[in-house]
Amino acid sequence: MTEPLLSVRDLKVVFHLRRGDFTAVNGISFDIMPGEVLGVVGESGAGKSMTGTAIMGLVDPPGEVSASEIRLMGERIDGLDEEGFRKIRGKRIGMVMQDPLTSLNPLYTVGEQLVETIQRHLPLNNAQARERAIKLLAEAGIPSPEERIDAYPHQFSGGMRQRVVISLALAAEPDLVIADEPTSALDVSVQAQIIKVLKDLCASRGVGVMLITHDMGVIAEAADRMIVMNKGEIVETGTVGDIIKRPREPYTIKLIEAIPSIKSQNPRYAAAAARGEVVAANDDTAPLVSVENLFCEFDLSPSVFSRLFGGNRKIVKAVNDVSFTIGRGSTYGLVGESGSGKSTCARMMVGLQPPTAGSVKLEGTDIWKDKGASAKRRRSIQMIFQDPYASLNPRWRVGEIIAEPIRALGLTSSRAEINDRVADLLDKVRLDPGVMNKYPHEFSGGQRQRVAIARALSSQPEIIICDEPTSALDVSVQAQVLELMTALQEEFGLTYLLISHNLAVVRQMADAVGVLHNGVLVESGPVEEIFGNPQADYTKMLLEAVPDISKVA
Amino acid sequence: MTDIATPEGRQGRIARFFDSDIVFSYRRSPIAILASIVALGLILAAVLAPWIAPYDPFNPRTLNLMDGFTKPMSSSFAGNYFLLGSDHQGRDVLSTILYGSRVSLLVGLSATLFAMTLGVGLGLVAGYRGGLLDTVIMRIADIQLSFPAILIALLIFGVARGLIPASQQENVVLWVLVLAIGLSNWAQFARTVRGATMVERQKDYVSAARIMGVPPFFILIKHILPNVIGPVLVIATIGLALAIIEEATLSYLGVGVPPTQPSLGTLIRIGQQFLFSGEWWILAFPAFTLILLALSVNLLGDWLRDALNPRLR
């Protein structure tokens, strides 16, 4: 057996906090062989990023790496001083971070940053370093690198920028690359390409990769071996195929079961299909919501002041002629990549963003133009937001937050009645009614999202617009929240508009689905038709790009 | 259920306050403790001046010219003891300082409160509404910030004095001073609050409130204000020190408080006439008090800024 490239023994990272010590990583051991891609997967707070940080020697006080032994090609690298680590970082261990926007310096061209890194670690002159930089960019799949090398980071798209970051990490020919959520900030279609680039480049150079991610799908596509982490400890280690197909530990089993697969159908349809029936869309009743030829344009022209001096008008069509209907009691899924206009659609439907043209009709009433429609809209439409940290006012108690719609709409003013209702709602979203007097920061992300759902329910709306309701949550929590949403839909006969970039979630939840691309609805129809037999090229591409654990060899 | 929950909740709140990071940071900062003791001591002494001052320096009947120019810690010819000496009219310097700090603090606090209310209000509206209103408010703030504050205060003070009939001046001059200092300091508040408001406005909890039809006024007061008030308290503390100094400067220039209600600035102006004739105490003690007051309040503000900044924790 060859010597491992990286060998970590009993790594322990402890944070000395005011209220006692917090152990972020608790005595983990693993090896990475040369040329191997090791996936590190776990939910937030599992200590996976901290492991990467500790290997690089970047743990800041009050954190402390204790009782560990880290060897890079047999040579101990823990306990080095700052100077020693500086020689290792970049030269022997390359790093790819999550956010390609902040990991490049916006003030320097891509070429300057690459050349600087190359020359710091390799004895090359300017021309040689530049040549090498161009070669690296070409290998990372950047078209016409000779011209692009002199561009600034903001002139690249997110995916291209991440390619630059990868070439930067490989610039000094490191032995090991630590990639911390390299694709989490990217759209699915770009994500697949980046995984491929990272994997190919490392394979061709025999570089070991430590791929840290929360997304089991990414691991399934990219990694050879994986370790599953939970609460600072390794739960399970093995080859990717073994763990995904035959997980042994209860935690791993739970984690894998919670992942919605793009292949798994909406349970309602699965049951119907098993009986050999076809679920008919509710064509007989009039739709609850109909969106007709909706347009939204943003005027990105310079201010009035600078337009006086000849600035040009610039108009962006965020939503371009979108029409769809949502039947009462059903779920309509809206999918698309970032910038496709999904959220803008949602904002127009809840009354936050006036449409440029077209109409949103709620039971036949145009919520923007008809008289008295705004009162109806406020009562009947509610919204759940993506970020459960920003959607609850941190200075308010949970009870006040949930009661806000009741008070704002003047449904009742009796204190006792409001209290009863809030307690009832908390019970409905499976939280203890006693948490009413707590503040949002005392809750976890999933619990906060439950509070947000309780708030949305408190005015007894007919339709709830859900803008990426689970994308900020861990998979196991996501499964719980989705289950809760389904249960509530059945109990109250709710209608949902579900916006998500996660196609698997939409397939599991929605009855009908619309695919948005650059503000245009490219395809719309029953969920099984769209996923089973996509017509538009864009939909096909999206479906293919989704990393999925069932694709594992 | 509420009957049981409320007292528990209240107790929890007090316990939580003493357990909070800000109290922790306070207990670990000797400078903050010292500064708060000094500031609190000075404020208490000023508030309690009528009861603790050994003499009433502004009652002409009790003044005795025979007491004039008594050195600190000695008795005058008339047999009165002066801890910090007496001035040319025989007034006790300690007592004038106590009464003077009272005026200084009253003007400083009122002016800061006024500047804060005005600045926070305009900042909230500008940040939330945006557009033309924002441009107009913030350009006015920019113009104002490009002048020294003292110049603006002088201007406002001068104009106001011209408008008010002479018979009324004695009564309202203190409030004109508050107005002048307040109007010259609102811009910092407006800028900070506007920026913070623009950040908060984007957050989903504000969108949620808008969806359910909460009127903008209530969104500003109940949702956004509690979330932007932290930095405002820091500026207010530092602004208090600035306002006290500004008042002292105006009074030193002779355009501030009326001579019948001298502030620390007035005392310094009076004292500097005697500096070169050897009666240093008439100037030194009021000046020292002013420095102590401004410094302690400023240090408290500095500490508060660091304590509230999560990045420095």
What does this structure look like?
The complex is a heterodimer of chains A (553) and B (313). With 553 residues, chain A is of the alpha/beta class. Chain A folds into 2 domains: 6-258, Rossmann fold, CATH 3.40.50.300; 286-302 and 313-551, Rossmann fold, CATH 3.40.50. In chain A, 37% of the residues lie in helices and 24% in strands. Chain A has 21 helices and 21 strands. In chain A, the strands form 4 sheets. Chain A has a 6-stranded mixed β-sheet, sandwiched between helices. A 6-stranded mixed β-sheet of chain A has the order 17-18-19-14-20-21, sandwiched between helices. In chain A, strands 1, 2, 4, 5 and 6 form a 5-stranded antiparallel β-sheet that branches. In chain A, helix 17 runs parallel beside helix 18. The longest helix of chain A has 18 residues, at 188-205. The model of chain A is unreliable at 277-283 (pLDDT under 50). Chain B contains 13 helices and 2 strands. In chain B, strands 1-2 form a two-stranded antiparallel sheet. Chains A and B meet through helix 14, strand 17, helix 15 and helix 16 of A and helix 1, helix 10 and helix 11 of B.
Gyration radius from CA atoms of chain A, angstroms:
26 Å
Q: What separation lies between the terminal Cα atoms of chain B?
A: 39 Å
Task: Assign the CATH class of chain B.
Answer: Mainly Alpha
How many H/I helical runs of chain A?
A: 21
DSSP summary: helix tally of chain B: 13
The coarse overall form of chain A would be globular
SS elements, strand count of chain A: 21
Counted up, domains of chain A total 2
Produce the secondary structure layout.
The complex is a heterodimer of chains A (553) and B (313).
Chain A: E1 6-17, E2 20-32, E3 37-42, H1 48-55, E4 63-66, E5 69-72, E6 75-76, H2 82-88, E7 93-96, H3 110-121, H4 126-139, H5 145-148, H6 158-170, E8 176-180, H7 188-205, E9 208-213, H8 216-222, E10 225-230, E11 233-239, H9 240-245, H10 250-258, H11 267-274, E12 289-299, H12 304-307, E13 315-326, E14 331-335, H13 342-350, E15 357-362, E16 365-366, H14 373-380, E17 381-384, H15 398-408, H16 415-428, H17 445-457, E18 463-467, H18 475-492, E19 495-500, H19 503-509, E20 512-517, E21 520-526, H20 527-532, H21 537-545
Parallel strand pairs in A: 3-9, 3-10, 7-8, 8-9, 14-19, 14-20, 17-18, 18-19
Antiparallel strand pairs in A: 1-2, 1-4, 1-5, 5-6, 10-11, 12-13, 12-15, 15-16, 20-21
Helix pairs in contact in A: 3-4, 4-6, 6-7, 7-21, 10-18, 15-16, 15-17, 16-17, 17-18
Chain B: H1 2-19, H2 21-27, H3 30-47, H4 49-52, E1 74-75, E2 81-82, H5 93-129, H6 131-145, H7 149-163, H8 166-183, H9 186-201, H10 204-211, H11 216-252, H12 264-272, H13 281-308
Antiparallel strand pairs in B: 1-2
Helix pairs in contact in B: 2-13, 3-5, 3-13, 5-6, 5-8, 5-9, 5-11, 5-12, 5-13, 6-9, 7-8, 9-11, 10-11, 11-12, 11-13, 12-13
